TrEMBL record:
Pfam families listed in its UniProt record: HTTM
GO CC entries: endomembrane system
Protein name: HTTM domain-containing protein
PANTHER family assigned: HTTM DOMAIN-CONTAINING PROTEIN, SPORULATION-DELAYING PROTEIN SDPB
Domain HTTM-like: from-to ranges: 17-284
Major location (coarse): membrane
Organism: Haloarcula salina
Record InterPro entries: HTTM-like, HTTM_dom, Sporulation_signal_mat
UniProt keywords, alphabetically: Membrane, Transmembrane, Transmembrane helix
Intracellular or extracellular location(s): Endomembrane system
Transmembrane segments: 24-44, 162-183, 218-239, 246-262, 308-331
Topology of the protein relative to the lipid bilayer: Multi-pass membrane protein
UniProt keyword annotation of Transmembrane present: yes
Amino acid sequence: MNISQSLREIPGVLRRRFAVDPRALTAFRMSLGLCLVVDVVTRLTELTAFYTDGGVLPRSILRLLYPTVAPFSLLTVSGAGWAQFGLFALTALAGVALLLGYRVRLAAALSLVLLVSIHIRNPFVLNAGDTLFRRLLFWSLLLPLAGRSFRSTDRSPVTPVATAATAGALLQVVVVYGANALVKLRGEQWLRGTAVRYVFELDHITVGLGDALSSWPLLLTGLNYLWLAMLVGSPLLILSTGRRRTVLAVGFIGAHLCMAATLRLGVFPLVCVSGLLLFLPAGAWDAVERSVPEAVRSIRSRRPRRSVTSALPAVRAAASGIAILAVVALLTVNAVAVGFVDAPAGTPERIENRSWDMFAPSPPVQTWWYVAPATLGSGDRIDALTGGPVDSTRPADAASRFPGMRWKKFLGDVRRRPRLRRPLATYLCTRWNRTHDDEMEQVTLAFMTERTRLGASERVERTTLGTYGCA
């Protein structure tokens, strides 16, 4: 084979690597819609606390801390709870439309705009999963998501879709793993095999089976090296095809499902699974189609509307151009983030893609929780966070001190950002006084830490962040 023949075959090789089965696109769209609905429902439990002026982050504080981006959130139009609830309900409806395949392009656009608005309204309750969620919703705008239905009775061969947008969506997922692997390799704990042991010693994030895994050090050491190897080998998700790609994608999906069962990581594992569905090749989806009962196949599914991008060549060309620019930006920003390329002058020190530093270069080495002793008008003392008696001893389960992952994220930022402490104290006072006659007069915020020492005794330390009156 001469050089010219080899060059002609390069586009074919790239096409096979970046092609996505239409049924994978359908599953991706449905999974994103489901993730959005789940995300909104979990946020609703803390709607007042995190998204209203009566909560821990009034709009005045948000505008003070983020004056440039705050105006771009639809949730900053009003600080009332009913307005936020209405926008959350609209976001959930957009997720349902995406899940069911109704006006897919419009549903994806609304989902992205509304989700970004929610994220901007309170950036202190976000993690890497939220960042990846936004990115995947962006790529969904450029992908042909109204593809073949699993209920289709059409047995004709399925033609994979290979565009700049499919390449960008696949690269987006691999970049998360690749960047995380590069940062982990710069630390010592992952190379020593102790990192996962430290992760499962963090009692404030372990849940379910995670609480029991810390007593299995050999197993955790094996999982440490296995996960690190998977991250380093993540480019094979694109470089491989067929069964090899299926095995690797299923391995990553299984790993994220295990994370969801053992660690309090919010929407991150589910969003990762959504992106990994794009890597499953035709053989996997053929098996899924065969598993769909004939009774379900006989139900006539609504024919999807023809998308604007498929109808108008000019629009399709513009979408391709946007996708190509987005791919270039994706690779460039991540190259800067991991230090492969020098950042241009004026670039912020912490690029958003540093969110991919999950437990890297090394995991934290301390479990932490809060104690909030408060004095009531009667002279009694309670813990303003739990409503129970003040107890500064180490709780049996530190994760139980947080109502959810987003409270853990916010309280972690309270330690680092003094401007968040007064709004938090005011919210705790207001929440108690709204339902009790014996009103709270002052509250103290105390940060408790227990340093992890494998095989050694651990000591609890207390840091008082401040005492605030409730007037």
